UniProtKB/TrEMBL annotation:
It comes from Marinifilum caeruleilacunae. The lineage of its organism: Bacteria, Pseudomonadati, Bacteroidota, Bacteroidia, Marinilabiliales. Coiled coil: none annotated. The keyword Transmembrane helix applies. This is MFS transporter. Gene3D superfamilies: MFS general substrate transporter like domains. PANTHER family: D-XYLOSE-PROTON SYMPORTER-LIKE 2. InterPro entries: MFS_dom, MFS_sugar_transport-like, MFS_Sugar_Transporter, MFS_trans_sf, Sugar/inositol_transpt, Sugar_transporter_CS. It holds the Pfam family Sugar_tr. Signal peptide: none annotated. Its main location: membrane. The keyword Transmembrane helix applies.
Length: 518
């Protein structure tokens, strides 16, 4: 068995996950600047973040069948090109509409790579190491997220630099454009590296290219195991030849009821607990505690590092401990962390004293805040509404974080602990485990379509969560928003305990016999 070969190929393919993570989370540093620049409403702000996920959702539904027709590698090359176009287009967008269109182009690449990369890796990896290798994709997603948080903070600091080269590159004037444009570099690298990746052995076998399939599989797992696995693949393909062309209706047959229910519930749970609200709005959430812009961006880096470290733990544990124990542990931590966040914001109070109002004179006439002087607001909703009424919408958008910093009474370290606990719990469990399960649960003949279907649901829920978050913050408040996420985490925990079987250490064909009842 040539582990170096299969690992190297898997790592290259998983770079699509890096681009996905970077592309998705880089917007977290952008929202603060585009809201006042383009005079966006809260729903428009949510749309700027979530539009990428909308096209990703549509791409996911097509990615599996398209890859069955043209090959996994070809689809990934197209995704890399779309990432590159999106990065440049987003960076130079002169208005909100073109920014959204450019991000939607990137969303197509996100949807394709998010589905096809783990599928490809599962089809080339040895069964005993499949969980670890498929998790390479999740590892690269979190690397991308971490790098995006770091580069956002770096660009913010370079904007304050007095160095001649930093001034020449105008990091201050074009900070958010630099944040978005940097992705073009790894996108170009990914495109060229994919030329060194072979076509998927399972795809080759499905298309009658048995000799090439054997060559690739032999490099990955050794000659004897390659022949054995190809026999199993051929048997699976042969058994499905007499059946009609696969359609979505096939997924709803009684024989697939169990795996479909598991796939759908896990897909919903991963997103409805609020992970992308944290990743895509991290600085905004931290600013709600009154720590200021620089500190909020630096704490976002800590979120990214936590995500990376605990994803590494998940990769180390997933084939040792198993999928189900990690999910149980992680979902429990998710629910508890969200309840901590809800309680922290629920106990916060807001009061603008005469001194704090005077300190706001740098960006507003203090007399505008006289009606709020020394009034104690028991919730962020009450405070924000009063502030909006007093200073107007434009000033509110530009300086909300400064007003909150002057008024709030909260324990910001408890909020940070809740966010870090949530991200750690997600990263060690449902983050990487979901995609491993998706690559394992469904039989060969419907795997491409089934993964696209549950991926569609996952991405659709993600879109709704991202779109609604700024509106929820403004209209429901942080406490209620995080409480809702915690309740969904608790419900997901109960489902996993009751319904999910363990899948580790079994070949894809063995799992088909266990889970699919004809």
């Amino acid at each position: 068995m040539n582990l170096k070969y299969s690992a190297a190929v898997s790592l290259i393919v998983a770079l699509g996950g890096f681009l996905m993570g970077f592309d998705a989370s880089v917007i977290s540093g952008v929202v603060k600047f585009i809201e006042p620049q383009f005079d966006l409403s809260k729903i428009q702000l949510g749309w700027a973040v979530s539009c990428l996920t909308l096209t990703a959702t549509l791409a996911m539904m097509l990615a599996g069948p398209v890859s069955d027709r043209f090959g996994r590698r070809s689809v990934l090359k197209c995704a890399a090109a779309l990432y590159f176009i999106s990065a440049l287009g987003s960076a130079i967008a002169p208005n909100f509409l073109l920014l959204v269109l450019a991000r939607m182009i990137g969303g197509i690449g996100v949807g394709a790579s998010l589905i096809i990369a783990p599928m490809y890796i599962a089809e080339i990896a040895p069964p005993k190491l499949r969980g670890t290798m498929v998790s390479f994709n999740q590892l690269n997603i979190v690397l991308g997220i971490s790098v995006a948080f770091f580069t956002n903070y770096l660009i913010l600091q370079l904007g304050k630099s007095t160095a001649g080269w930093a001034s020449w590159l105008q990091f201050d004037a074009y900070n958010w454009r630099w944040m978005l444009g940097l992705e073009a570099i790894p996108a170009l690298l990914y495109f060229f590296l994919l030329f060194f990746v072979p076509r998927s052995p399972r795809w080759l076998a499905m298309n009658g290219l048995d000799d090439e399939a054997l060559q690739v599989m032999t490099k990955a797992v050794g000659e004897s195991k390659a022949k054995e696995q190809l026999v199993n693949i051929a048997r699976s393909i042969q058994s499905s030849k007499s059946k009609e062309r696969i359609s979505v209706k096939e997924l709803f047959k009684p024989s697939l009821k169990l795996v479909l229910i598991i796939g759908v519930v896990i897909a919903i749970t991963q997103q409805i607990t609020g992970i992308n609200s944290v990743f895509f709005y991290a600085p905004m959430i931290f600013e709600q505690t009154g720590i200021g812009t620089d500190a909020s961006f630096s704490q976002a880096i800590l979120v990214g590092l936590t995500n990376l470290v605990f994803t590494l733990f998940a990769i180390w544990l997933i084939d040792k401990v198993g999928r189900k124990p990690l999910l149980v542990f992680g979902l429990f931590g998710i629910a508890v962390s969200m309840f901590v966040l809800s309680a922290s914001f629920g106990n916060a109070t807001y009061q603008l004293s005469e001194k704090s109002i005077a300190e706001c004179s740098v960006f507003i006439e203090p007399s505008q805040l006289n009606e709020m002087k020394n009034i104690v607001f028991e919730s962020d909703i009450e405070f924000n509404n009063a502030l909006l009424s007093s200073v107007g919408e434009q000033t509110f958008k530009e300086h909300q974080s400064e007003f909150i910093a002057k008024a709030i009474s909260i324990n910001p370290w408890l909020v940070l602990a809740g966010i870090i606990g949530f991200v750690a719990s997600f990263a060690i469990s449902i983050g990487p485990v979901m995609w491993v399960l998706f690559s394992e649960l469904f039989p060969n003949r419907v795997r491409g379509l089934a993964i696209s279907f549950v991926g569609l649901i996952n991405s659709g829920v993600s879109f709704i969560v991202q779109l609604a978050f700024p509106w929820e913050q403004m209209n429901l408040g942080n406490a209620t928003t995080f409480l809702i996420y915690g309740i969904f985490g608790a419900l997901g925990l109960v489902f996993v305990i009751v319904m999910l079987p363990e899948t580790k250490g079994k070949s894809l064909e063995e799992l088909e016999v266990i889970l699919v009842k004809e």
